[in-house]
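Lecture notes, part 5. Sequence design as translation. It can be helpful to think of inverse folding as translation between two languages: the language of shapes and the language of residues. The source text, in structure tokens, appears below.
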């Protein structure tokens, strides 16, 4: 079917795809279990009462499930967002930043600067900046979570 083997970790685009698939494989079961736990906190009779009151199939999800699970789901999203910034281990194991520097993530770049180039001061400065970037990226999600928490109580 193909003339030669495909090097999934040797092509820049395919290497990122391989890392994304490995990350998906690694974290999806955990996220699904957390979502299932959040969904299981909804009382059993609420959906049945909505159906008895004449709600269609979409309305209980939109007006009951989402509002009741908005805070836990935003927490799960925040957790996965933070975990996605921590993409050092897969890059280190699968590609070591290659081919070339195509799959070098920020965490892996800081590792290379500190350990391979022995520039610990600059690596520490990059770590502080990276921490600030992560803080700024997670700030809207934290605000959304706080909004859902206030609305729920």
């Amino acid at each position: 079917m193909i003339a030669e083997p495909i090097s999934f970790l040797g092509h820049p685009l395919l290497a990122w795809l391989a890392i994304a698939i490995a990350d998906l494989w690694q974290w999806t079961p955990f996220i699904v279990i957390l979502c299932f736990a959040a969904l299981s906190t909804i009382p059993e009779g609420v959906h049945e009462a909505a159906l008895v009151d004449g709600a269609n199939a979409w309305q209980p999800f939109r007006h009951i499930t989402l509002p009741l699970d908005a805070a836990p789901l935003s927490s799960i999203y925040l957790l996965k967002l933070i975990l996605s910034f921590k993409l050092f281990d897969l890059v280190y194991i699968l590609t070591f930043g290659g081919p070339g520097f195509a799959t070098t993530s920020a965490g892996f770049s800081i590792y290379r600067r500190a350990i391979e180039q022995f520039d610990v001061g600059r690596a520490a400065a990059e770590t502080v900046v990276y921490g600030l970037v992560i803080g700024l990226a997670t700030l809207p999600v934290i605000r959304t979570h706080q909004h859902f928490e206030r609305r729920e109580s």
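The translated text above is only one of many valid answers, since several sequences can fold into similar shapes. The radius of gyration is 21 Å.
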